[in-house]
Amino acid sequence: MRLVSYLGKLFFRGVSPGADEIEDLLNLSPCAALLVDIAQRRVIAANLKASGLSAYTQAELLQMTLERLIHQPDQDDLSKASQGLPASQTVELIKRNRSLLQVQATFTPLPSRRKWGLLELEPLATVYQRERQRSWVPQLWEVLREYHATMQADDPEAALQSILNIAHTLTGADNLCVYQAQSRPPGLQRYASSGKIDELPERLPAEELGHLKTPYIWLPGKRVTSSLHKIALTNKLAYLATHPLGEAHALIGVLVICSDKVLPDELGPENLALLANTIHATLQQKVRSKSLLEELQAQTVQSQVAQAILDSTQDGVILVSPSLTIQRLNTAAEGILGYTSAQVCGQPVTKVLIGNDALMSYISMARDGIPTQRMQNYRLFRRSGASFPAEISFIPLQANGDNQGVAIILCDLSDKESLEVHNQELEKRAYLGDIVAMFAHDIRNPINNISSRLQLIASSMAEEDANRDEIISLEGEFDQLGKTMNTIVANAQVVQYSMEPLDLTALIKRQVDRMQFKVRQDDIQINLQVEPPIPLIMGDSRALERVFSNLIDNALNAMKGEGGTLVVKLHQVQEQNERFFVEVSVADSGPGIPKDIQAKIFQPFFTTSKSGSGLGLAITQRFVEDHKGSISVKSFPGGTIFFVRFPIIDNLAR
Q1: In 172-244, which ranges are continuous DSSP H helix?
Q2: Do 90 and 213 fall into the same domain?
Q3: Is 310 a member of any domain?
Q4: Residue 301: inside a domain, yes or no?
Q5: CA quadruple 55, 61, 64, 70: dihedral positive or negative?
Q6: How many domains, in total, are found in the chain?
Q7: How far, in Å, CA of 483 to CA of 440, rounded?
């Protein structure tokens, strides 16, 4: 020991340090240290750690006998120490409150003055933890091997066993066991284990799941709440940790860890929860994988039949299951009916293939094995509601002697008519767009004038004026009217973009400057961040002004009445395909968007606002994608961030 050697050298050189110097030297020891007179078996000096461990003051420890401090000290070990041999043993430290603490005591004589020795005390838990840390590297390799086995295992039981082996290696516990809930007979059955399981029963009564529904680490002296805790108490275990498996409303079992060794620091509540969640997630993943594999094998037969039909015809094909729900549409059928295969998959065929009352009879006959071939000039309806003449056949599908459903083959007999109808629809839409645009142009200026004058009137009125709130309310309604008009116009018109090199920084700065007056009223701070260089993009300035006006308006509305911070950031990013983009993020400190509606916010006419049209974000997404860009959202309680990316003109920019 370096401390012992240092003290020995001092005395050998004739240096006699005082009490304060000896105490300072003892405080260099990483553990509780006592300087002991071997002959008198008394404490001469003690460091602060010895005082903290024993709960005696340093003054009380001085001249205290070892018999009073250590329970049943071994005389032979002190004799060996007096001969220059260090001695270590496990003893019980008698603390000030008379409680006993198991410690490892190491006694080493001073090299030049053997009548004195250094007694160092460490709690067994600390010693055990240090030993585990020394063995961490080989344990890490063992954990990696077990983790690899877990990832390779297809059997859920094998995967679970690998995880328990990993936990056994990491915690050093004697017993790790997973109990699974069963309904017949009711109770908990031991499902998998690692280590010795002599103390743990094969089954637990059903009521145990109620006692163990919350995480709990039992230690000697703590409350006993279940039969497992009674077993731990009877077998004098050092700890027993339990954690439920599954969701709070649907528990599937319990994880049990116990040992007669001291509870390791690694097995705290957080790591116990992590282990339990890992076990639950692995079981769920393996079960789902097995289920998906079985489902895939079952669908292979249907896929082979459907593929043979789809490869042999250019007509529209609808594959229908025996339960008369749609399984797939080929590309031709999508074009004829106006649906995508993903939109109608799983839907009843009669909701998509609409004709006269006899249609269902023909489909049912085909399901029963009776085909109907080449019905000509049969009237069907597209998704748009327009009817068209078709040639239609209903063919039973057989595979391995079993009925696999029905194939419905469509041949559209009105291509020319369909094209004319389509052109007429485009003309009507363009005409409607022109009318709406003219109407909007005529009323937009009066709306803006009224809104501006209302702002002026409101700003000139006293705060206590009762009419001021009414003026501000009217101003908001005119703003909403203008926004609604803009969204209707954007949705009705066929957009003709005027693409040109565009500086997004200047465009967005103009948008932010326009909002300054509004945000001051709502106690909102706007922070514009630009990380140059920001390359030019190809874009239509009016369309992109609309994009960022919508996003900034939405962010301000999310913070309205509460105040907050709006951050608009521009910087250049590079994607994995090495293409460069200008990314604009619009972040607000509002309440966030609930997860269950985040996937719907870009759908037309979806809105959570009573006054909203539900077209703003749909139009925004349309404009962005028309510019070969992308838009995404990230939201959480306390904030929402929209990310918009546009490809730069010079994709070699750095």
Answers
A1: 208-211, 227-234
A2: no
A3: no
A4: no
A5: positive
A6: 5
A7: 11
> Would you say the pTM of this structure is higher than 0.70?
no
Residues 6+ positions from 457 with CB-CB distance below 8 Å: 471
Looking at mean pLDDT, say which of 55-64, 112-121, 610-619 comes out highest: 55-64
Tell me the pLDDT band of 240, cut-offs 50, 70 and 90: very high
Residue 77 has pLDDT above 70, yes or no: no
Same-domain pairing of 125 and 217: no
Q: Residue 175's domain is classified under what CATH number?
A: 3.30.450.40
Which pLDDT tens digit goes with each residue over 437-487?
666 666 767 777 777 777 778 777 877 777 777 777 777 777 777 776 766
For residue range 2-54, what is the model confidence (pLDDT) as tens digits? 565 555 554 544 445 566 777 778 888 888 999 888 888 889 899 999 999 99
Q: Is the pLDDT score of 564 beyond 80?
A: yes
582 with 637, same domain? yes
Residue 369, domain extent? 315-411
| Residue at 620 is within a domain | yes
Residue 7 CB partners (closer than 8 Å, separation 6+): 22, 25, 35, 110, 118
621-to-184, 543, 551, 616, 646 alpha-carbon distances in Å: 54, 11, 11, 9, 12
Query: Buried (b) or exposed (e) across 234-257, using 16+ Cβ within 10 A?
Result: eeebbbbbbbbbbeeeebbbbbbb
Among candidate residues 393, 411, 429, the one where a domain is terminated: 411
Last residue within a domain, chosen from 370, 391, 411: 411
User: Within this chain, do residues 578 and 604 fall inside the same structural domain, yes or no?
Assistant: yes
Q: How far apart are CA 241 and CA 366, in angstroms?
A: 61
Whether residue 372 is contained in a domain is answered as yes
Report which DSSP code applies to 548.
H
- Please state the length of the chain: 654
The reply to whether 426 and 391 lie within a common domain is no
Check whether 416 has a pLDDT greater than 70: no
Question: What is the C-alpha to C-alpha distance for residues 627 and 646, in angstroms, rounded to an integer?
Answer: 7
* Residue corresponding to tokens 């603390």: 95
Question: Residue 224 gets which letter from DSSP?
Answer: P
- Could you give the CA distance from residue 357 to residue 595 in angstroms, rounded to a whole number? 43
